[in-house]
Design a protein that fits this description.
This protein has 18 helices and 18 strands. 39% of the residues lie in helices and 23% in strands. The protein has two domains: 2-98, Double Stranded RNA Binding Domain; 150-467, tm_1862 like domain (pyruvate-formate lyase- activating enzyme). With 473 residues, the chain is α/β, with parallel strands linked by helices. The structure holds iron/sulfur cluster (SF4). Iron/sulfur cluster binds at residues 164, 167-168, 171, 173, 175, 217-219, 251-252.
Amino acid sequence: MILIFANHGFHYEIERLFRSFFPPLKIEMSFDKADAKGEYCLTERIERVNGWTLSAELKTERECYFASEDIPAGESEKEQERVLSVLLFKVLREYTGKSMPWGILTGVRPVKLLANMQDSYAEGKLMVSARKLALARKINRVQRPLIASMPERSYSLYISVPFCPTRCSYCSFVSHSVDKAAGRMDEYVDRLVDELKYTADMAEKLRLRLDTIYVGGGTPTTLSAEQLKKVFAALDRFDRSHVREFTVEAGRPDTITREKLEVIKAAGADRISVNPQTMRDSVLKAIGRQHTSQQTEDAYDLAREVGFRSINMDLIAGLPEDDLEGFRYSLQRVCALAPDNITVHSLSLKRAAALFGEAEIGSNSDVAAMIDYTHKLLSEEGYAPYYLYRQKNTVDNQENTGYALTGTESLYNMYIMEEIQTILAVGAGASTKLVDTSTGRIERICNHKYPYEYLDRFNEIIEKKQAVFGFFS
Ligand code: SF4
């Protein structure tokens, strides 16, 4: 299918909307109406005496779908973009039969966008379904007091450990399997410690107040207990007297041992993630994970025994070889463990994932039903949604939602999603986000993506980070 933009500049939004209907289809694009031959989707703006005619047309060998609207002169570019998006949305919805509950919204953070919007505008002009709108509103209500509790000049510290025991087939993250990286893991830990010390000194000079700590990955527990100890020892350089939350994403159950959990606990972490993704062993095998659901339960029990007060578990809707029944089973089994937080992701197929291009994954229409079931079961079990984000190329164009028992919400997850707090990030692939809370201005400083680049060009990172001083002065 070729997507054609004729006489308008709304390429970015139109392309994103188009792609959201067809992940992971590879599409061609053109800016020439003459390419409207064979199978195509044409989006067009024609200038008239008193305004424009906007239209969307999708043509295949056997069918043709068309929608158009005249709009008056003087209408803003933003409004023209919205109208053309709605026309395309209607045409694609009719062609595919998909409901697409987020309407024409293609952004990552719909909660923030919808917060101050009238229901009638969101539903009537942006085509957002009443159900998703209610979900966004509910999350906003939970978030408001937590956002208000964020201290002035506070920041979160993110520590990246981009290693995993093996690579899951659906993963697009720049993560290195331990086998490949084994030779340089110690060196990685040493540089991480250097960057942590630099960051601690910088925060002190700038009088920034450390609020939350998050160790993420990859799978941080691919590090040995000794390596973890070394990383945590560097945290002593920070003023931790105001820290409200310290999370370690243990992630894959096959990397979790009592010794590592005790090291994490002794370092002061109070939250941990044990991520099953699914509780069906056949699906675990299909996605390239080398652990069983029993190991997930054992790791969870161990984490409770060691004394973690707050445990999160992640599941993914739409995994290969899973179905609605299997997903329901996984969610019920996770609920039976009674974790404090449950995060349900919709499978996102990105280019880097081994699965990209496999059509049977992208057409898994059970995902919407899985997500609906999640909302229903988790609210019955006493969990409330508290953060939400969307990704590109998500199966069925669904979202990722974090649920929590009241009072156990992760501040870090919420602050990062809503982009309201500075994050000083260390490690390969980590992205420092500087937020000016009075103006909303945001600047980013990205560390090198790959561990070997991080190690070989470490000094460049430290140089780049000088910009933090400029931002806060
Ligand atoms: S555990 Fe997560 S980061 Fe690691 S390979 Fe699997 S999906 Fe990717």
